Structure formats: structure tokens, C-alpha cells
């Protein structure tokens, strides 16, 4: 018999920009069956009823940039290099549980030490382990000696790029990740220097396109961003050092920015001696203010923004993903637009806009029920004791309602 559940008298932020007061949402099986005013919808006989008075219901959130293989240690590169792949996988499963407990029902994992991320994805999909849906890239594609080589495959030339991209897709990749500039965590790389050529990046885009997949490009500096945009990527991860030309290109081509403000902020906030390598601290501190200005510029200019945290980087913990929304609001984004960046906009970026990201009939019932109003105080979404229920595919999987 199909399960039916009704959430009544709740405030509903539906992911389209609309707010319903005293609304009812009916879930039938794993799908949303109806949304409407409390007086307009009748609850089917036998349905489980959840009292939503004082609560806000919104779509399950989507984090477009995580690394479940990284554990937020001070020196994440050393940590992942020193532990066994099997231990990394076990830790990744624990981090997946922390993530869904925080109301993140889907993640895009854009760089793992190996292909075990796809085994974790399958285990979660089969209900063996709790966790969010995973759209994973597997290994990132980088130049020889380039950024992210500790979770990547090093390549040289278009032919190698095509071969490695096909290998990632064959292993189960739902997105291809390319490295278009140096980075913060990798020793000997400069964030403002471009890496990989336009033709190499375009080769990855072409292979992904043949499989109907998208390409995410790590890029801090403007030159790397421009190369990636001209190559046809779908998102710029970090977008730290924007200039006017890059903003124009992103708008022209409809390329998303995934700002990952939390990554630099949590690193730069640490003092020397905390365990973060000095070179990493220096790079993070040198870019944080510029990163904030770039985010504000992108938002004001109408660049599409999808939420991503880079969870797993130093002191940027899995399960604290919603801190990214607080940071975006503090830099001028409205609370509604911040929520949209983690729901409908994120769903479009990961290619699930017809399934997730909004509370509408026939959509997958991934929902988050919280105590309070995040439109008045976005920090409600960051407080574990405010999470009343996390629903994935029509079942409460976390929060007090999961125990009811």
C-alpha cells in the first residue's frame, strides 16, 4: 500500500520564489502529490499527519561542491595521502550521514581520491547506508603537477584528456571535474595562474557532452575562468578573483558560479600553528577579501549562483554546509535567493531540475522541515536542534520525525 503523508499548517518556501502561509503538502509514496492552502486541500483518509504550525518546509538542500574523501583536517592533503583507501571510504560514509542530517539531501562530489565514491553512491541509493544523493566526478582532471593532483588524474594534451574523461564516465561519473587554475591546498601552485589549455578543457567538455553530462571547472584566477568558460564548462567553482570581462562571459554563456565562500573563510580564520601549512594560510588570507568582493560583484551583476561549500577542506566540516548560506546573506544576497541557490538553482546545475529543487506535484519528495523562519534569519538552517525532519524520497530519514 502506498504511503501517504500530509504536512499541514506549515510555511512553505517552494523553491520557485513563492511563500505559502498555512499550507498543506501531501506526499504519496516518493513523490509530492499536492501543494495548496490548508482550506483548499483535503487530507486523504489514513494519511500520516504532521503538524507544521510554526515550522517552515522547503526543498531538501543541494550542495554543489563537496569532497567526502576529505575530513576537514588542518592538512587535508597529508591526511588523505597517509590513510588507506578503505579507511577513506568508511570515513566518507560517516560524512555522508552527517551531511543528510544537516538537511542536505543531494551533493555534487567534485573530486575523490579514487572511484570508491561511486560504491558509496550505489550503497546509499540501495538504502544500505544513509546519505544524500551523490552526483560524483570521481577523480578530477588536472595538468601534470597541477592543483588537486592528490585527488586527480594528471594529463597532458587533448587525447589524454579525452581518455581520462571517458574513464571517469565509465566508472560512474555524473559530472566531469577539470582544474583550470592553481589552487590553495596544493603546494607549488598559484591560484591566479591558469592550468590546462582551452583545447584541453574543451576536449573534456566534448566527451562529457557526448554522455549528456556537465563539466565543473575549478578556477580561482580570471585567466583560468575565461579559458574554462570559452571551453564550454557549465560552472566555475570558487570564482575567487573575478574581473568585469569574466562576469560578462559568465552571464553571456549562462555559466554558474559556485562560490564556496566557506572554504577560504574557515582556512583564513586560523592562526599559524593550527596545523594548516603556512603556504595554504598565506594563499587563503591573501584572497579572502577579494573572494568576498567577487561574490558580491557576481550577485549584483546577475551571474547565476548555486550553493557549494567545498566541505572537507580545513575546518570546513561536513554537516555544517548551511554556513555557506549565512556567508552569502552577509555579503548582500537576500535570504530567498540564498535558499534558491541551494534548491532550484542547484538542481538545475546538477541536471536534476525536473526531479528536485522545488515543492511541486510529481517532484521527488526531498524536503526539509525546520523550526523557525529562514527568510527572517537564515541561520535557522545552520542549527541542528532546529531541524525537525529531513525527508528523502518520501521518507523521513533524519530529525525527530524520523523517529516518530
From TrEMBL:
GO molecular function: imidazolonepropionase activity
Signal peptide residue numbers: none
EC number from the UniProt entry: 3.5.2.7
SUPFAM superfamilies linked: Composite domain of metallo-dependent hydrolases, Metallo-dependent hydrolases
Keywords associated with the record: Hydrolase
Gene3D superfamilies the UniProt entry points to: Metal-dependent hydrolases (3.20.20.140), Urease, subunit C, domain 1 (2.30.40.10)
Domain Amidohydrolase-related residue range list: 56-397
Pfam families reported for this sequence: Amidohydro_1 (PF01979)
Enzyme class: hydrolase
PANTHER family listed in its UniProt record: ALPHA-D-RIBOSE 1-METHYLPHOSPHONATE 5-TRIPHOSPHATE DIPHOSPHATASE
Name of the protein in question: Putative Imidazolonepropionase
Protein's organism: Nitrospira japonica
